[in-house]
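Fold it.
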Amino acid sequence: MRNIKSKKKVREPIKYLGLDCDSSEELVFLFWCEELIEAGYISKVTRAKSYLLTDGIHNTYSYVKQLKTKSKPISSTQTILQGSSYNPDFHIYWTPKGIEKFCWQIGTNSKCDKLFINDLHFVLNGYTTVEIKPTFDQNGMERLFKNNQKFLYDKYMIFANLVKPQHLFEATFTPEKYHYTAKTKQKRKITFKTRTLKEYLPI
């Protein structure tokens, strides 16, 4: 009897604010952004594009292939090293009051004392680049990110901000929707002191 292997279900990304979320951390980060959009600190959030960090190494060579009645010149290419690219998670477009509250600009004669760092690219294109990571880095992905972060800034002058949502919520405010789990809508157990956006940014 033929063995029929069951197909693994491919987890579809969750959609929120019209964006695909590949993890629960990305989803709850968008909860945070959503409240700041409604309060007028962020104008929009988009998915970030991919950036080529290193070119590959390729070897192109030619040779003559002998056929039955004639010779045929052949050109071929070998890949010695694959190129590498990096795709951050999101671009945040701030409003003027959002920039004033949350962003520090590289190159200004001031202490870096804001949550997000902006770069020359921000001045030209108007968005902050962010990478979302979980609080506990079980697979060592944060170390890989830090290398990509350096290469990205060295090649494109783009600074990718590392965001761990739980740390972000502790430092600022906890979005209302984070208090309940996305799937079961049960009350989430939160181990840190929370505050609302209005408590963090009283009008």
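The two ends are 71 Å apart (CA to CA).
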